[in-house]
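Review this today:
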Amino acid sequence: MAIRRPQQHRLPPLLAAVVLLALSAVSHARVCPSCGSTPVPYPLSTASDCGDPSYPIRCDAASRSLFFDTSNGSSYPVLSITPETERLVIRPSPFVPGACIAQDLPTNGLQLDRARPFNITQSNTIFYLNCTQWLLRSPLNCTATSPCHAYVNATAEGAPCRPAPICCTFGAGGSSTSYSLRANVTGCSAYRSFVSLNTGSTPVSQWAQREGVEIQWATPREPLCTAQTDCEAGANATCRADPTGAGGVRRCFCNAGLRWDPFSGTCANNVTGCEATGSCGGSNNAPLIAGLTAGLGAALVVGVVGYLLFKRQRRIRAARERIAKERQDILNANNTSGRSAKNFTGREIKRATGNFSRDKLLGSGGYGDVFKGSLDDGTLVAVKCAKVGNTKSTDQVLNEVRILSQVNHRSLVRLLGCCVELEQPLMVYEFIPNGTLFDHLHGLRGSPKPLTWRHRLAIAHQTAEGLAYLHSSAVPPIYHRDVKSSNILLDEKLSAKVSDFGLSRLAESDLSHISTCAQGTLGYLDPEYYRNYQLTDKSDVYSFGVVLLELLTSQKAIDFNRGPDDVNLAVYVQRRVEEERLIETIDKELREGASQVELDTIKALGFLAVSCLEERRQNRPSMKEVAEEIEYIMSIEAGRAVEERPPKSEV
């Protein structure tokens, strides 16, 4: 196609020379030409004679498109460049067709060159897909509620990853040492990345619009030089030694009256304060004007500030009253027992806990903090505080108060009241002095003496009775949904009390299950509930079966020290039972010196635990049947212990 050139007007030779001389002082050839229709801003460099060569990107001659090449040989298309924020976005590696495997898996995923001034930003939300069990020990969010499950289940792009059971979500980058998004066969075989994705408010169908990996570059310094001619034709900068460098490094430093502009890669004119405001020259009446303004406005400012403070206090008070009423309505919702929790004032709670002194902190978790307190009558209490500003934490504390206000059983922690008038809701329950079952089983109480077999049987029976009460005697029935050894408290007599009802749900009498997103703790979570999102009483039975295994083995529900195939305690013990090697899994403190009767009852409880872990929930016993079976095992252990005890005359 012929290109028509516009008519040109020629300048006289002398005038042209003057113009060219003037332009040489401000023009430069450092910015690289556009790649196709995409501009290449400084300092990005597509060739050795433009931009800053330490900021390389590649302009593909065939497609006229930009690519970002990494140190491990992979190449990624550049989707956008924002020079104002010194960032660019690249497209992550696609999946191998029909498989949940990234195409850059052979090169271990996205690996930036650590010697280059690029790093991954914190604006990226990363989904690691098709992961192995090793990822469960990482700080990544690999739970059933992780947003990566929504991506896999609801999008065509994520469909190849649906058969893979484990995926994790991670907020990547954010530091100058964030260089990689790893993919490998021992961790995760695929990944997806999204820029500035709000998984809570953005529909899943729109997530693909934000797909990409955002990379930022460091602000470039003055360019390196070997001679004066390297510095903008020698006009605006001087080539001299870098006082902050080593090894004789020389840079083009701007001359007096000029400053280094890293966005254009040139020396630009300094702008003084008066030039920026246009106030250079003339008389300065600023002091007089300032004095008059201060005098006339002082009274008005004081009056306005006072009025605004008054209005603000009224709004805060009204907001607190509204929030307290809303929380009270939540507590009273679906309360069929007619009982309600006592309302403590914020002043009472602060006095009981020493204004939430850190010396009284008993523990912290995802829900918030628990403090030890003492009421005015001397009653010792535990005060659970929701996290400030965390809606999920607030809902869990309110739900726990609502559940506990409707139940009353010796094996359930006793609720004393709540407080809804402070910034975060609080629940007050009886103080249980002996810690959790988890602490005792895993040596976290500092006591060298382990729990005896009789104590363990009693704890199992008391816990089973508490859960059976929730399932069979409470109206409506209650599903705990987070049964685990760290939620079983032990009092001074080592009697068990089930606690932490933040995830509990009220059942509906006309429904066989509750359809809800799977929540709980890895290692205790019912696999059928995890797959089908159907919560039933048998989900608690499965979790209790894992607790029984902990009582028998003194091992953790998830432990990566057991080897890759035995990380999950339920899988580990079930495999040993199939091999008729159950006794090898039992805590040696129980095995050594145990009588034959004790070994028989240990085996009986082990087989009961395995029946609670049946894959199909229909094959699991109810909690009432479990409690009765444990009571029978206890009677055998206690009765035969009496028979085997020698007469007093022989002692």
